Amino acid sequence: MKSRTALMLKMSLKGKQSDNTGRYDVDTNLEKDIVPISEILDRDETRLQDCPVLSLVDHTLGHIEEGMPVGGEPTTVEQIVNKEATSPTILDQEEVSSCESSSGLEDDPFQSSGSSYHPSDAEDYHMENKNGKRKRCLIGAAKESLGCGDGIIPDNTTYIVQKNKKIRAKKGQSDPTKWRRNTAKALRKTGKEYEGKKKVGNGSKYEIVRRNSRKLGDRCNSSKCMQSTKRQCGKITEEQRQELFKKFWSEMDWNQRKTFVATLVNKGPVGQQTTKTKSRRQLSLSYHLKINDIILPVCKKMFINTLALGEWSVLSWVKNSHSSGIISQTSSFPNRKKAVNVQRRLAIKEFLERLPKLPSHYCRSSTSKMYLENVFNSYSEVYELYLKETDKELVCSKPVFMSEMKLLNIDIFQPRKDQCDLCFSFKQGNVSSDIYQQHLIEKNRAREEKSLDKEKALAGEVCAYTMDVQAVQLVPFVLAGIIYFKQKLACHNFTIYSLSDNKVVCYVWHEGEGGLDANCFASCLMDFLDTEIKEEDKQKPKIFYSDGCCAQNRNSLLSNALFHYSKTKNVEIIQKYLVKGHSQMECDSVHSTIEKAKKNRKIQSPSNYVDIIRQARKRLKQPYKVKYVDFDFFKCYDEIKYISSIRPGLKKGDPCVTDLRALRYSADGISYKLNFDHEWITLPKRVNWTVGAIKPLYDTPLPIKGDKYDHLQALKKVIDKDYHGFYDSLRKLQ
């Protein structure tokens, strides 16, 4: 039988003849190289009679013959596969698709012509696609995938075979402790069973062998040792040997074992010459065991069997030790160069230290990680800048660069507050299913509650809003290399979104005008209640949805301010909190739209950022309303202290602030809910009805740090002169 390659070369378009119908038939000259399918089945019937694939062969080929009527078009493989999609079928999906030809019979020299003849090697025949790539099809590929080359398929096998693909490891730092060689080495050092290597013959080939765990060997029963006055093997009991063996392999590390052996084996000159020629033996060894702080001389067998060591290991350790018993630390590869020069790593560290950084916007109290300013979109951009700013002689590869970033605890992306810790812990198997299911119920219930309030707002029964602060925006932002190494001015955007009419109000300020404390957010919310609500909606209940960030939305200062407004205006105000990690709201879409609008835009001052926000909404008729506020806008509500805390509990184990789901403020007082389905409960706090006055929070603009001020002055050379006056007006912290 000729090879498949030769057969494929012969069965080309040149080896086909067309009839009047335009259909190609296999040239009759090639019939000598083709064996009928009946002969194939007869030939292989004995070998395949017990293989489940045989029934599939008959089944599939039967359909092929049924789908090839005389004078008609042949049935394609795709049609057969689709027809049998619901029956047990052995198919390699990728290979079958490569065998079909849906456009033009001329392009496929293996297109069936309706003949009952098939290539002789039916078990593993091949087809060529348009690109000339050879693919195994149907029977042979299926048998190979199922591992039944000998005609045997395991029972209960599912006859749908996916092509095996190599799964690449995740990108990141390697863990050498999990390498097979290091794992075996660690097991060997602890005396456990491991897989080692054994040299085969005189070549460089090795075979993997199983090494048994260390076990206490037989004791010395030699009559010479029993009668000798120099050796005291007989004085050591079996319990003492067991205790010494356990201590040696359980309580010592590898270096301690070496030192222990070196101190118990004495080196000395050769005492007796037993050969006429010069011997390779250069020293004599005397062995001892330490029992109850008493060193007893023993024979070599007693020593190595008690400690479960090999003779050559003991000899090597003793030779490499000094007179004090300390083992000399020699490297196995003295000429091997270090992977990365220390000087190069220092260059990476210096480069990263030059880049301005920010603490986490959401997790300042819970993480020490620092984040590069959001001028970088990927790690590749940071690495490209490193290549430009570093001498070629000190440049390292990207994996080394990334490892140094991790060691310095520096990242480019700030962690989102909306990442759910509980859901992530459940995926890792650290949270029970009951707790997770309860978490999902609370998440869905919070979303349902917001949907119900939105319907009420659309019906005109209440006024419902969502509010959140956008991630810090840095100004200026221009396409200049100096921008990466200079600190920039931080801008803040507190957004309130109306659920009834999609009205959006953005309160924008920079760090020279205000901070991010509760007074700033309370000032924005009070201004919104006073100026942005229609007159006909003034007396309607107001519902504000937010996340559970305590510094912004869930604190006693904001609650006192809202309670003061509610009591003064005689209106009901309700705060509702979404579940942590699932606090997606309508105002988040505003922030996303702003991010898209400022992409590839030149921002030279906060006023440019304000213009971008105003122009961000294009589809709806009403644009985003922006209030660009300064320092005298913010008020201090510290003296408005009706209650000292909003914690619903009093003692240990009672509900805390983060357990709150809703707070209601009215002229009668403050009430709360721990679950949206519960009734309102009066907050168990004594109310102080005598409060102070509301005062301005700042008397003057806020000064910024000296180094940041200097950086902003240096950035003036890459921005237009029209904006220089703004940066000159900033106050510098002395």
From TrEMBL:
<feature type="compositionally biased region" description="Polar residues">
    <location>
        <begin position="98"/>
        <end position="118"/>
    </location>
</feature>
<dbReference type="InterPro" id="IPR057191">
    <property type="entry name" value="DUF7869"/>
</dbReference>
<feature type="region of interest" description="Disordered">
    <location>
        <begin position="85"/>
        <end position="130"/>
    </location>
</feature>
<protein>
    <recommendedName>
        <fullName>DUF7869 domain-containing protein</fullName>
    </recommendedName>
</protein>
<feature type="compositionally biased region" description="Basic and acidic residues">
    <location>
        <begin position="120"/>
        <end position="130"/>
    </location>
</feature>
<dbReference type="Pfam" id="PF25273">
    <property type="entry name" value="DUF7869"/>
</dbReference>
<feature type="domain" description="DUF7869">
    <location>
        <begin position="500"/>
        <end position="627"/>
    </location>
</feature>
